[in-house]
């Protein structure tokens, strides 16, 4: 099949007209990128601001310094403090379910606005961590993996959207390890197939972990977030862009944003539910 594809490409190349087209990939004006939000957990929340970088730039995206960042729930307003370059923090703030939060950013003479409603999340009843038989396709051998399940009664009525993250405290360490620090490790879903259900076996959320990553005696903490449909669509579009690269992938599409004035990224608001369990290899 590979030889057939290569042959077809060569034939098309030989019969096609050739024309040199120069693309100027370094002239677009830098755009603001917004990443951050607020939850119902009482803490200092952070908004990260960066600028888009040149196509040819190998360094990390530049941080957007010196912005004026304000958060409001319609009755109370908080002015965020830039504690690090491009990192803007609230005081200890706790989001409230049912409120709509508005983010306003003034940067380099431009104003950017975003708003997001904070919906309730389905509470976690309990979580459990199991070692189960699986198959290692890289080594082509059977192998045991650590999988994480949760039990919860999903709210009846379609239209709920969720995001999950988790962290681990190993028995021989004093610090929690964030197992979902990168976007590619997040799990997100809607309630299309679980609406109003509470399966006896629980919901399988994370799986395929080696016992070196989650050894026996580890404490596992699962976080479950509510999201809006718009944020779910943002994550879904971001995922399709991040994991493209196949021969038959379609053309790339713009990832949606809820920030005005041509900015990229997303400002979100989430209710959060947490639960812990100790993994015991018995």
Task: Describe what this molecule looks like in 3D.
This protein is mostly beta strands. The chain has two domains: 32-120 and 233-269, Immunoglobulin-like; 126-227 and 272-278, Immunoglobulin-like, CATH 2.60.40. The protein is built from two helices and 17 strands. The protein has helices at residues 2-15, 229-242, and strands at 32-39, 43-51, 68-72, 77-79, 81-84, 87-93, 100-107, 110-117, 126-136, 141-151, 161-169, 177-178, 187-190, 203-209, 219-227, 264-270, 272-278. The strands form four sheets. The chain has a five-stranded mixed beta sheet with strand order 5-6-2-1-16, with no helix packed on it. Strands 11, 12, 13, 15 and 17 form a five-stranded antiparallel beta sheet that branches.
Features:
Immunoglobulin-like, mainly beta, 282 residues, 2 domains, 2 helices, 42% strand
Helix tally?
2
Structural class: mainly beta
CATH topology-level name of the largest domain: Immunoglobulin-like
Q: How much beta, percentage-wise?
A: 35-45%
Helical percentage: under 10%
CATH architecture assignment name of the largest domain:
Sandwich
Q: If strands are numbered along the chain, what order do they take across the biggest sheet?
A: 5-6-2-1-16
C-alpha-based Rg, rounded: 23 Å
Q: What oligomeric assembly is this protein in?
A: single chain
Distance between the termini: 48 Å
Number of strands: 17
